[in-house]
Specification:
By secondary structure, this protein is an alpha+beta fold. 18% of the residues lie in helices and 18% in strands. The chain is globular, with a radius of gyration of 17 Å.
């Protein structure tokens, strides 16, 4: 299932487009899967996408969306092949998203 991440962008005077994905302190799930920096992307609930994209979004609305984004319980996470990170295209295959068991990783989510 795809996620909708909260992001911001800007266009520089020379028309270069830059962007950033908003993050917040890692939740317990993300602390397990990601995280020397202990961060987690802000994952929008489907019902909040139009709210996030509203041009009249205020600071309190942004803070509310960040605080009340998609909960860990709504996320099905599991390890996949490390081939995903190969630069030679080794991760460009249909089964790359299949669950993989690693002897040195204890998974309980």
């Amino acid at each position: 299932m795809p996620f909708n991440l909260a992001g911001i962008y800007a266009v520089t005077p020379d028309e270069m487009v830059t962007f950033a994905i908003l993050t917040k302190k890692a939740t317990p799930l993300f602390a397990k899967i990601h995280n020397k920096k202990e961060r987690r992307p802000v994952i929008l609930k489907d019902d909040d996408i139009d709210v996030w994209l509203d041009n009249d979004l205020g600071e309190s609305d942004v803070l509310n969306l960040i605080e009340n984004d998609l909960p860990d319980a709504a996320i099905n996470a599991y390890p996949i092949s490390t081939d995903l990170y190969k630069r030679n295209g080794g991760g460009d295959r249909p089964d790359i998203v299949e669950k993989v068991a690693y002897a040195d990783i204890e998974i309980d989510y």
